[in-house]
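BUG: 3D viewer hangs when loading the predicted structure for this chain

Environment: internal workstation, default settings.
Expected: structure renders.
Actual: progress bar stalls at 90%.

Input used:
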Amino acid sequence: MPRIPRSRRAALQDNPVDGHKRVLLAAPRGYCAGVDRAVVAVEKALERYGAPVYVRKQIVHNIHVVTELEDKGAIFVDEVDEVPEGAHVVFSAHGVSPAVVNAASDRGLHAIDATCPLVTKVHREAVRFAKNDFEILLIGHDGHEEVEGTAGEAPDHVTVVNSPEEADTVVVRDPSKVVWLSQTTLSVDETMETVNRLRTRFPELQNPPSDDICYATQNRQVAIKKVAAEAELVIVVGSANSSNSVRLVEVALEYGAKAAYRVDYADEVEQEWLDGVATVGVTSGASVPEVLVEEVLEALSGAGYADVQEVRTAEEDLMFSLPKELRQDAAGQRDARPLGGRTTEASA
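Structure tokens produced before the viewer hung:
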């Protein structure tokens, strides 16, 4: 996996602006329960079985998290055929198709499934609707690991719809037996636009039994909408391959921010972004550890943005248990480590 070099750029300057300099810090932000569970799963696997532990794809879409786990002994691979026979392999939070599970079994791998339970829910929905011979319109992005995993549950019944525009051209076999599902990390607004356009063409389109877009994605989008209405600039901490982080940039621009940028690290914040800006909004994607947000806040403080005001729109207390293989330590003692948002409150 490529590493992003940590540059040592000169500190941001405290240039004068019209108005009081401040930061509006969105909350909730950062780690969600599913990401926390997946990262801890790799850490626990390393503790339990020793290095190396193999991970198919990035465990979560954040280069900092991946790099830290690599330093602890995790080896990230693209496919399970790169894993030595008999080794331990962790499936990422984004989920895998049954074909991947079978391939791991065929190689005698000890698989640990760290798929987010909310993604697993969508997989089960796909299986159930396929058994009832429904055509599944999966709203998401072709090539995203989560979409590949969900589509792999019922490849003969799934058609991926990438955008509202594709909703106008998608073809189905039987308009009376169509259901929509979605990738969990999409923009809520764009997803509903796609659904509405699909329903215009297919009035009998069925809804999933419950909302597929995850609570954390929705909560972070709601928070940044409120921040963006008052911020001239929004900085989203998150990696380029993180769908939910990219969506936060888009949502910020749609809801009033004059400019919005995504960064992996504080060193990437450009001085020119702050020119004439009094209010900076800050948030982070659901796979981002809070330490990276703290670094951005520290950099902004050096530029005069020391007044940090939290804008909270929801409380999160959801927790997921570890994969069954990791619920006990090597001595057989139950692991009671709490999961879910363990670092989101660090700067609150």
